[in-house]
UniProtKB/TrEMBL annotation:
It holds the Pfam family HTH_3. Residues 161-182 are annotated as: Disordered. SUPFAM superfamilies: lambda repressor-like DNA-binding domains. It comes from Dickeya solani. Gene3D superfamilies: lambda repressor-like DNA-binding domains (1.10.260.40). This is Helix-turn-helix domain-containing protein. CDD domains: HTH_XRE. It comes from the Bacteria. One of its GO terms (molecular function) is DNA binding.
């Protein structure tokens, strides 16, 4: 096979190990709010490489994974595979099992089934994203009934592709209603 032969190249980068394929989720958890730039600086890796890892487009090489694990204060084995090495920090593992048992014990069988299903279907980062979305819903619900109605009217007009004149009328209506509410 020649170096330029495209037929012999495997373009799919899927690794048949579920733990490895969710690396990006664990990296996001391990970063714990650390910026991409901060992690890149600590590991001497480009910020674009970190971004690529977080999007699941690529995986770090063996020479990069240890510095990433060190910078994130995470076990390298967990970061790579998702498996917890109980010998790494046995006290932490026991504490975590106890806490998990306590939480699961307080849940109904149906709630446990739903939680397990959600973890398998969406992963941890998907659940966290959904919870963050709930914060936006909570903020919306804190608006007065009049303000919620106004927001929904404007949303419907935008969704229906309202003309510029309708948008201006909606804006005037929103301003007028704010003055009346205030």
């Amino acid at each position: 096979m020649k170096k330029t032969d495209k037929q012999g190249i495997n373009h799919e980068r899927f690794i048949p190990m579920p733990g490895i394929n969710r690396f990006y989720e664990r990296l996001e958890i391990a970063m714990n709010g650390m910026s991409n730039v901060a992690l890149a600086t600590k590991c001497n890796i480009s910020e674009s490489a970190i971004r690529s890892y977080l999007k699941g487009r690529s995986y770090p090489g063996i020479d990069k994974i240890q510095p990433i694990a060190d910078a994130c204060n995470s076990p390298m084995t967990w970061l790579i595979t998702g498996e917890v090495d109980a010998t790494f920090d046995e006290g932490f593992a026991k504490y975590s099992e106890t806490e998990l048992s306590l939480v699961l014990g307080m849940m109904t069988d149906e709630q446990r089934k739903i939680l397990v299903s959600a973890i398998f279907e969406y992963g941890v980062s998907g659940i966290v994203s959904a919870l963050n979305g709930m914060a936006a819903v909570t903020d919306f619900m804190r608006l007065s009934e009049n303000e919620r109605a106004q927001v929904l009217r404007v949303y419907e007009q935008i969704k229906e592709g309202a003309s510029q004149g309708d948008s201006d009328a909606a804006q005037r209506s929103l301003t007028t209603n704010k003055r009346q509410a205030g």
